């Protein structure tokens, strides 16, 4: 956020970043990552731009995804990226580190953007790009929603059924024996 504020002050003035997860009301030693993030926001004087709202019920998350311009996931690792998929299903573009499942789930330039791990300048640049181009955001939103449909349970079940039906039949014990 600080980089965006330095590069695009007017854009940053209209920003609001909501951090969902953890418990910002717990004592510092209970949730060290939350404490670290809150301390960092204070140190960088971002308290007017960042809201730490804690964990939210699963059935309420869609309201946050739908209200967001983008979901930002600067992760070091994600095995699949369920949060990203949930955002895509709501039509919310995702800007995420190009790691694990996120590298496959997010289609760079189509459903969001990939950024290198721990590269804040690249992350800020992609956020700026998305916020300054409502047309690109609208296109990505449509594609995000369409891509998420490929992960619906019915589609996954059909893919598994096709895979199982196309597997070669198991060899029987008589087929496995050596010719005499």
H/E element order: HHEHEHEHEHEHHHH
Helix content: 40-55%
Cα radius of gyration in angstroms: 21 Å
Please tally the β strands and state the result. Answer: 5
Beta-strand content bin: 5-15%
Main sheet summary: 3 strands, parallel
Taking pLDDT < 50 over at least 5 consecutive residues as the criterion, the unreliable ranges are none
Give me the secondary-structure category: mainly alpha
Main sheet strand line-up: 3-4-5
> For the residues shown, what is the average pLDDT?
92
- Shape, per Cα inertia axes: elongated
- N- to C-terminal separation? 74 Å
Report the total helices: 10
Describe the structure.
The protein has 180 residues and is mainly alpha-helical. The chain has 10 helices and 5 strands; from the N terminus they run ααβαβαβαβαβαααα. The radius of gyration is 21 Å and the shape is elongated. The N and C termini lie far apart (74 Å). The mean pLDDT is 92.
Quick overview of this protein structure:
The chain has 180 residues and is mostly helical. It has helices spanning 2-7, 9-13, 32-43, 61-67, 82-89, 102-105, 120-132, 134-149, 153-165, 173-176, and strands at residues 17-20, 50-54, 71-73, 94-97, 112-115.
């Amino acid at each position: 956020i600080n980089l965006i504020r330095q590069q695009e002050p007017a854009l940053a003035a209209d920003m609001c970043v909501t951090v969902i997860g953890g418990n910002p009301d717990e004592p510092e030693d209970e949730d060290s990552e939350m404490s670290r993030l809150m301390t960092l926001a204070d140190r960088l004087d971002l308290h007017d731009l960042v809201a730490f709202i804690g964990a939210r019920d699963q059935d309420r998350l869609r309201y946050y995804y739908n209200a967001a311009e983008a979901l930002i996931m600067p992760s070091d690792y994600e095995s699949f990226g369920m949060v990203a998929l949930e955002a895509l299903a709501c039509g919310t573009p995702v800007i995420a580190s190009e790691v694990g499942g996120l590298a496959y789930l997010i289609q760079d330039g189509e459903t969001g953007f990939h950024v290198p791990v721990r590269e804040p300048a690249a992350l800020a640049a992609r956020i700026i790009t998305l916020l300054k181009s409502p047309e690109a955001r609208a296109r990505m939103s449509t594609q995000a929603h369409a891509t998420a449909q490929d992960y619906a349970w019915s589609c996954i079940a059909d893919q598994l059924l096709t895979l199982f039906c196309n597997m070669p039949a198991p060899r029987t014990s008589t087929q496995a024996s050596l010719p005499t």
